[in-house]
Amino acid sequence: SSPASVITCKAAVAWGAGQPLVIEEVEVSPPQPQEIRIKVVATSLCGSDVAAWESQNIFPRVFGHEAAGIVESVGEGVTEFKEGDHVLTLFTGECKMCRHCTSNKSNICQVLGLERNGVMHSDRKTRFSIRGNPVYHYLGVSSFSEYTVVHWGCAAKVSPTAPLEKICILSCGAATGLGASWNVANVSKGSNVAIFGLGTVGLSVAQGAKLRGASRVIGVDINPEKGEKAKDFGVNVYLNPKDYDEPIHEVIKRMTDGGADYCFECTGDTRVTTTALQSCCDGWGLTVTLGVPKAKPEIAVHYGLLLTGRTLRGSTFGGWRPKSDIPSLVDKYLNKEIVVDEFITHDLQFEDINRAFELMREGKCLRCVMHM
Ligand code: CXF
Ligand code: ZN
Description:
Blueprint lengths: L6 E7 L8 E7 L6 E10 L2 H9 L10 E9 L11 E4 L38 E3 L2 E3 L11 E5 L3 E3 L6 H4 L5 H13 L6 E5 L3 H12 L4 E5 L3 H7 L6 E3 L8 H8 L6 E4 L4 H10 L6 E4 L13 H5 L3 E4 L7 H13 L9 E6 L3 H9 L5 E5 L1
Parallel strand pairs: 10-11, 10-13, 11-12, 13-14, 14-15, 16-17
Antiparallel strand pairs: 1-2, 2-6, 3-4, 3-8, 3-17, 4-5, 5-9, 6-7
Helix pairs in contact: 3-4, 6-7
Bound molecules: cyclohexylformamide and zinc ion (ZN).
């Protein structure tokens, strides 16, 4: 096929922190060497987009990192993808060459790991512009656009039979929770699990724990609407800390004869990390962090909690090696081994993307999927 040229299309552009996005005509450059250009079919809003939009200062910017689409063109040197392939985007990539990617112990690629400055990994430039002025990226994905460009290591080829408007949520939230449960904690049958934060990530942890045969899954959230929905995803006991005079970790310790086997922090509030660690048991209690703090990233931990044998373990993307593992998660969805559709509370037209931001901020959705 003929070499790719610039595409002009619609993107939802954030012009400043917390300001409603504006649908703009943007120029999307052709994929550079080692990159692919994707026609985004469906993209969902994740809490991290909202957090970055509220608190960071890189603008104008195209957010979005949970997406599914179809390869439109490929750059020089790309052999793994061709036009027409169905893909999920990956906010943390896998180069398959670095020390981490070859270690079998890590999903934190040294080359295509988390981008923080709004530019592409390779040349530190942007592929979006408006009348020649750069528009910045988010996490090397920027899916709130009809077309986007990503490194080939930041996309996973998936079964063309999978509905893109559903599996997009496996690109971040739903996979993160399942992976934390299965890969990071390795939840065992008969165990007690406590999950802090019952959004898509926390409820995916619950789904994972239930599928592993956990005997009790305790869900904690200060939003009672979240507690309501949680039952459908495997949470047996919902606790609202506002309903108790004593600290919630005391309640959990009493319910579990001394503390949960596994705790999961899915709120991004480091005070909750402390609570989670206090809620797991002596000897073998494990607390896994999944949330990403906006402010005060330091964690306060009394040494006595560690002295008595607890482990605090961090994670990104549920420990999944994004390219190697995510296609099989899509297959599990197609085989009805995991549920995905139930997390999608709202289907919106791309133009109504600001509604998704409002719903997420108000705690009134799990996943809003935008259809392009
Ligand atoms: C997060 C992971 C850590 C940095 C920001 C994004 N992932 C997805 O939501
Ligand atoms: Zn995300």
